[in-house]
C-alpha cells in the first residue's frame, strides 16, 4: 500500500511541475528514441540487403585468380580453360548446379532512329533457373545456343519497350559489335527483374542482356573468372575453399592461388558493416541517456530542497528513513519510465516514417525496446539514488526549521 501511495505522490509532484518534469525527461526521451530509431533503421537495412542478395541467389559464387599472388602478371596456363571447368563440374556433380565463364561486353545498337547501349552478359544454358528473373516472353539461352555458338540474345522488358515499342519483340534482331565484328543477334526472350534498391547505384545507361557465352570469347576460351551456382544446402564458404583448392591442385599452383567470393560472404560483410555502424551510432546516442540521468539527479536534488519541510513533517509523524528513500526513488524512476515510454513511441515513429520514405518495411526489434526501457529505468534508479538518500538522511528537526 505504501508503494501505491508513493506512486501517487510522485505523479502529483510531476503534475504540479509539468514543464520542469518534461524538460527533465527530455534527455531520456532523446536518448531512447535515438537508440531505437537507429537500431530499427539498421535492422531494416539488413533485412533489405538480405532480400536483395536472395534475389541474386545466396548460392551464387565467383571463382577467380588471387591477384595478390600474381604481382608480375598472369601466365596463360593460370587461366581457366574449358577443360578446367569440365574437371571441376565432374569432380563436384552434386555441389555445382551451374558453371560458366564470367564474361561480358558492351555495344551500341540502333533500331531505326532509336539508339542505345547494351551490356551483354555471357551465360550458359538455363541461367534463369538460378537467378531470380521472370521470363515474360520466349525463353532463356539454352544448351543448343551455347553448343552451337548461336547469335541469340535475351533482353529485358525496358529494352524491348525502348527499342521496339513493344513488350514482345521475340524473333526480331539487334545489331551489335562483338570482338570488333558486326553481328545480328536474334531476340529469343524477354525477361523482367523486380526493382532493387541497388538500381540507383548503377550509373550505367546500358540495358542488361544475356547471350551465349561462347560468342563473347575472342580467340581463346580461357578466362580468369568463373560464375557458379552451388548446392545451397551446404556451407558456401566450405564449398568455395574446396573448389579453389581443387583448381590450384590440378593446375599445380599454391593452394591460395585461386580464391572465391560468394553472395553469402558479401552479405555477411555488409551486415557486419551495418551492424557496427548501428552499434557505434547507437552508443553515441546512448550518451544522451547519461545526460538525461544527470538531469534527473539535478531536478531531484532541487525537489529535495524544495520539499525539506514536507520531509521533516513526514519523519516527525513516523515515516522511516527507508520510506523517504523509497518515495524519492520511485519519483525518479517514474520520471525516467515516462521518458522511456515516450522515447520508445517516438523512436518507433521516426524509424517507421524514415523507412516509409525509402519504401522499406521497418523492422522493430522487441529486445532493443526492452533493453532501452530497462536501461532508462536503471538510469532512473542510479541517478535518483543520491537525491533519495540525501532526503532520507535529513534530520527531522532541522528539516522542520528549514525555510
UniProtKB/TrEMBL annotation:
Protein name: FtsX-like permease family protein
UniProt source species: Anoxybacterium hadale
Source taxonomy: Bacteria, Bacillati, Bacillota, Clostridia, Peptostreptococcales
Amino acid at each position: 500500500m505504501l508503494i501505491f501511495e508513493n506512486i501517487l505522490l510522485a505523479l502529483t509532484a510531476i503534475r504540479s511541475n509539468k514543464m520542469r518534469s518534461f524538460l527533465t525527461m527530455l534527455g531520456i526521451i532523446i536518448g531512447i528514441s535515438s537508440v531505437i530509431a537507429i537500431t530499427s533503421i539498421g535492422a531494416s537495412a539488413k533485412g533489405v540487403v538480405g532480400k536483395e542478395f536472395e534475389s541474386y541467389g545466396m548460392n551464387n559464387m565467383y571463382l577467380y585468380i588471387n591477384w595478390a599472388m600474381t604481382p608480375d602478371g598472369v601466365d596463360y596456363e593460370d587461366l581457366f580453360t574449358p577443360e578446367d571447368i569440365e574437371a571441376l563440374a565432374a569432380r563436384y556433380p552434386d555441389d555445382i548446379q551451374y558453371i560458366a565463364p564470367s564474361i561480358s561486353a558492351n555495344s551500341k545498337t540502333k533500331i531505326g532512329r532509336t539508339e542505345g547501349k547494351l551490356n551483354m552478359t555471357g551465360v550458359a544454358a538455363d541461367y534463369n533457373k538460378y537467378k531470380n528473373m521472370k521470363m515474360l516472353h520466349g525463353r532463356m539461352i539454352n544448351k543448343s545456343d551455347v553448343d552451337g555458338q548461336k547469335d541469340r540474345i535475351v533482353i529485358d522488358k525496358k529494352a524491348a519497350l525502348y527499342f521496339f515499342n513493344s513488350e514482345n519483340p521475340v524473333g526480331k534482331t539487334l545489331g551489335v559489335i562483338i570482338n570488333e565484328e558486326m553481328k545480328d543477334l536474334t531476340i529469343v526472350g524477354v525477361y523482367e527483374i523486380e526493382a532493387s534498391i541497388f538500381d540507383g547505384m548503377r550509373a550505367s545507361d546500358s540495358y542488361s542482356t544475356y547471350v551465349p557465352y561462347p560468342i563473347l570469347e575472342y580467340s581463346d576460351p580461357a578466362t580468369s573468372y568463373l560464375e557458379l551456382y552451388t548446392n545451397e544446402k551446404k556451407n558456401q564458404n566450405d564449398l568455395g575453399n574446396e573448389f579453389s583448392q581443387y583448381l590450384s591442385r590440378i593446375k599445380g599452383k599454391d593452394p591460395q592461388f585461386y580464391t572465391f567470393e560468394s553472395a553469402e560472404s558479401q552479405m555477411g560483410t555488409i551486415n557486419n558493416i551495418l551492424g557496427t555502424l548501428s552499434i557505434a551510432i547507437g552508443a553515441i546516442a546512448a550518451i544522451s541517456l547519461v545526460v538525461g540521468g544527470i538531469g534527473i539527479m539535478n531536478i531531484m536534488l532541487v525537489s529535495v530542497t524544495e520539499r525539506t519541510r514536507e520531509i521533516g513533517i513526514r519523519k516527525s509523524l513516523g515515516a522511516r528513513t527507508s520510506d523517504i528513500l523509497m518515495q524519492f526513488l520511485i519519483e525518479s524512476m517514474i520520471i525516467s519510465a515516462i521518458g522511456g515510454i515516450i522515447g520508445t513511441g517516438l523512436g518507433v515513429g521516426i524509424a517507421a516514417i524514415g523507412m516509409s520514405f525509402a519504401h522499406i518495411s521497418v523492422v522493430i526489434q522487441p529486445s532493443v525496446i526492452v533493453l532501452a526501457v530497462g536501461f532508462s529505468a536503471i538510469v532512473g534508479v542510479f541517478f535518483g539514488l543520491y537525491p533519495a538518500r540525501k532526503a532520507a538522511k535529513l534530520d527531522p528537526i532541522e528539516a522542520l526549521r528549514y525555510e
